[in-house]
Amino acid sequence: MKQRIDLANWNRREHFAFFSAFEEPFFGLVAPVECTGAQAEAKRLGVSFFLYYLHHAVQAANEIPEFRTRIEDGQVYLYDRVHASATLGREDHTFSFSFIEQHDELAGFVAAANAEIEAVRTSTGLRLSEFTARPDVLHCSALPWVRFSGLTHARSFQHPDSCPKLSFGQLYEEKGAIWMPVSVNVHHGLADGYHVGLFLAAFERRLKQWR
């Protein structure tokens, strides 16, 4: 479900008009997120840490209206809920796009994700479809081999795109805590640094809920 935003009375109407005219309207940043204990909690639950933090990341994004806002045919819509379109790897080191429906409960999300993981494992290519191309998704990827401090995305400027992009890096220990670099890229006509900060705070809070 989605509702159309009245651009004439929207408090971001000038921001939207200004940044939407850019060849590259996205901006991004990388920040460390503490996940001390979250990895152990995922292990206790018998869930891969990737699916554990991905579920919490999508849940955190759903808390932020700006992360559920999309541009479609020049109009702006606010979705009730957004889901994950994550890149999933294969044994031959290729990857595929996916669509993972979001669930409030971790078990439901993990079941949906495992079905996609199996579908990717037994397929080839990118698996582009109407589901992976849905506007009500977050584009998610993981680079668990790299403790990155910056990240860019391959993008076609001719293709309309307003989906936030989340990337997760290699865990590392520092000052007695476990951290993970998280890259967030969003359309500047829809969100600002303040909203990215809200997302990162919500994500970190959810990773600490096990306590």
From TrEMBL:
What Gene3D superfamilies does this protein map onto? Chloramphenicol acetyltransferase-like domain
- Active-site residues are H188
SUPFAM superfamilies assigned to the protein according to its UniProt record, in alphabetical order: CoA-dependent acyltransferases
Asked if the keyword Secreted belongs to this entry, the reply reads: no
- Source domain of life is Bacteria
Q: Which InterPro entries match?
A: CAT-like_dom_sf, Cmp_AcTrfase
Task: Tell me which UniProt keywords the record has, alphabetically.
Answer: Transferase
A Pfam entry, by short name: CAT
GO terms assigned for molecular function = chloramphenicol O-acetyltransferase activity
Q: Which SMART domains match?
A: CAT (SM01059)
Does the keyword Transmembrane belong to this entry? no
- State the name under which the record lists this protein: Chloramphenicol acetyltransferase
